[in-house]
Amino acid sequence: MSSKPFPNHGLSPHSPDEMTPRQIVSELDKHVVGQGGAKRAVAIALRNRIRRRKLGPEMAHEVQPKNIIMIGTTGVGKTEIARRLARLANSPFLKVEASKFTEVGYVGRDVESIIRDLIDVAIDMVRQEKVEQIAEKAESSAEERLLDLLLPSLKKVKPPEPKQASTEPAPETTLEIAAQDETRFLRTREKLRKKLHQGDLVERFVDIDVPDRVFPSFEIITNQGLEEMDVNLRDMLPGLFGARTRRRKMRVDEAMDYLVMEEESKLIDMEQVTREAMERAEESGIVFLDEIDKIAGREAGHGPEVSREGVQRDILPILEGTTVNSRYGMVRTDHILFIAAGAFHVSRPSDLIPELQGRFPIRVELDSLTEEDFVRILQEPRNALVKQYVEMIATEGIRLRFTQSAVRKIAHYAAAVNENSQDIGARRLHTIMEALMEDVSFDAPEMNQKAVTVDARYVRRQLAEIVKDEDLSRYIL
Question: What CA–CA distance (Å, rounded) separates 261 from 244?
């Protein structure tokens, strides 16, 4: 069991293995407003993983993850907390909807595909990390190959044959000519390299041999779902079809991107990537199981239909710890952290089957968002909506400014619409902001005015009639 900390991609100055629960909550506060209880729960869950890594192998194997159920209406931050936690810990993260799965014996996605998808996410994550490590070397090799295409080397150019044997130069003269040719070639190559760096060769074209991907394939229907069906004859019989290539003409910039990808694939050991990815998924993977309330409850009727209780019983083994067969090998689910979430308007967590309830020992209820929360959401997070609109409109050369009174008025309207119609939490701010900024977004490329100030009066003029008309706001906001 590896105790090596994963890279953190600059999300925090601290290593994930060094962060205390308080520091984890502080990092989450930068992206999600409020919901202190949920943040504390996930922070403890992450810290428990760090503690488990420091235990002896025998005890570490026995410690199970403390899965969490988040209870709250849509748009209060359930998904965002789980996603930010995964990024903070640099863990493979997968969000799935429980309602998409069917019980065994019915056509549809089986629950084991959750783990296979998580492995695919982990492989992409580890491969990207390897790419960042060898990026400079791959780019350098690709540049040399591109220069070879732009200026073939002297070895590839066949020298002209002498017409008469008597006119051949002496060996010393031949060496001098070859040295001069080599010097001129290198000088020309460096000039091309300089032009390439300056972007002067972008419009030129080169011919590149690319693999011919037209080859026979067929599908085998198995009980493991669509993701395991594709079988490629070239993989099974590599010598039958041979390595066929075709010549393709590309612009220099496209050719550079393609050659960099080729060099990356040569430098990365995918077997090592797969091993690391499977270990990371098993030891630190996080699955966010949304809409779990949709599969809660038991049906009174009988008949050939997918039962919610059946889906729960199929999910149970993965939560308890089982082995899932994937295209990369067997995957253990004992230490994958599951965070479930649901609004539970109609059903309750107690409506889940007892075995499933027991696998979610931590339950957190998220608070509904207030008008004051909306004010903070609009301004405080790093990706706050107000900041996004200011930056986007700035690309048109226009300086957009929101006054504090405008922000408060937007928050007031969002809270009012949520109260009078369906409560969709912070997502209401997106619809409000789109309606508010429609005119500016549409006219921005042609506006002579280079500064726009959004104040309370402007917000009232744009939104008051829509908010007042309940029938209209039901469709627009």
Answer: 19
